[in-house]
């Protein structure tokens, strides 16, 4: 699903955020990406989503060499990826339903299909009864779940999450991780950047650790 071959990322100004990174995430695999602040976790996810481009090396996503994706085709690339940020980026002047529906409306789905899929996605994250609420009336954990529902509404084969539990207490963090595991159980590939080692060590998934831009360790499935 994702293959990095000797990938480096140097930002304008010269800072090298990723250095010679090699790894492969198989279709249907779930893994965590960890490392100290500034280790390069977000940079790695940004390369996969084509928010940034690699300076050297090769990034393949779903068999496609991202160096060959033209700028005007980036939106199509992103539609195949569900991206979840720590600060969920919800629209606060729209209801929960409308926030989740947005990607479907943009891609031109019929109203009835939108209704059906939004309800299913909200049910999946346990928020069906909050569909008509505005995000400001929800807790941080609930807002994050709305962000997850929105990210997966297009049924992407790959989900990327950047510190999805950053502001949440341990109990809520575990609940969020369980939602990702549920997606993974139905075949979605999942890559989650997180510095919460206590939490991710409890999960039976591979852990990739970055250290100053290098892949320092890659610990496989333990269960
Ligand atoms: N657009 C940019 N321009 C220049 N340098 C950048 C840019 N984005 C990130 N960096 C630098 O690259 C390094 C890696 O940043 P990155 O955000 O990938 O790390 P991270 O592991 O996600 O950190 P954190 O856990 O703090 O979010 C940092 O030193 C950062 O300052």
UniProtKB/TrEMBL annotation:
<keyword id="KW-1003">Cell membrane</keyword>
<keyword id="KW-0067">ATP-binding</keyword>
<comment type="function">
    <text>Part of the ABC transporter FtsEX involved in cellular division. Important for assembly or stability of the septal ring.</text>
</comment>
<dbReference type="InterPro" id="IPR017871">
    <property type="entry name" value="ABC_transporter-like_CS"/>
</dbReference>
<dbReference type="InterPro" id="IPR005286">
    <property type="entry name" value="Cell_div_FtsE"/>
</dbReference>
<keyword id="KW-0132">Cell division</keyword>
<dbReference type="GO" id="GO:0051301">
    <property type="term" value="P:cell division"/>
</dbReference>
<dbReference type="GO" id="GO:0005886">
    <property type="term" value="C:plasma membrane"/>
</dbReference>
<dbReference type="GO" id="GO:0016887">
    <property type="term" value="F:ATP hydrolysis activity"/>
</dbReference>
<keyword id="KW-0547">Nucleotide-binding</keyword>
<dbReference type="Pfam" id="PF00005">
    <property type="entry name" value="ABC_tran"/>
</dbReference>
<keyword id="KW-0472">Membrane</keyword>
<comment type="subunit">
    <text>Homodimer. Forms a membrane-associated complex with FtsX.</text>
</comment>
<dbReference type="InterPro" id="IPR027417">
    <property type="entry name" value="P-loop_NTPase"/>
</dbReference>
<dbReference type="InterPro" id="IPR003439">
    <property type="entry name" value="ABC_transporter-like_ATP-bd"/>
</dbReference>
<dbReference type="InterPro" id="IPR015854">
    <property type="entry name" value="ABC_transpr_LolD-like"/>
</dbReference>
<dbReference type="InterPro" id="IPR003593">
    <property type="entry name" value="AAA+_ATPase"/>
</dbReference>
<dbReference type="GO" id="GO:0022857">
    <property type="term" value="F:transmembrane transporter activity"/>
</dbReference>
<keyword id="KW-0131">Cell cycle</keyword>
<comment type="similarity">
    <text>Belongs to the ABC transporter superfamily.</text>
</comment>
<protein>
    <recommendedName>
        <fullName>Cell division ATP-binding protein FtsE</fullName>
    </recommendedName>
</protein>
<dbReference type="GO" id="GO:0005524">
    <property type="term" value="F:ATP binding"/>
</dbReference>
<feature type="domain" description="ABC transporter">
    <location>
        <begin position="2"/>
        <end position="223"/>
    </location>
</feature>
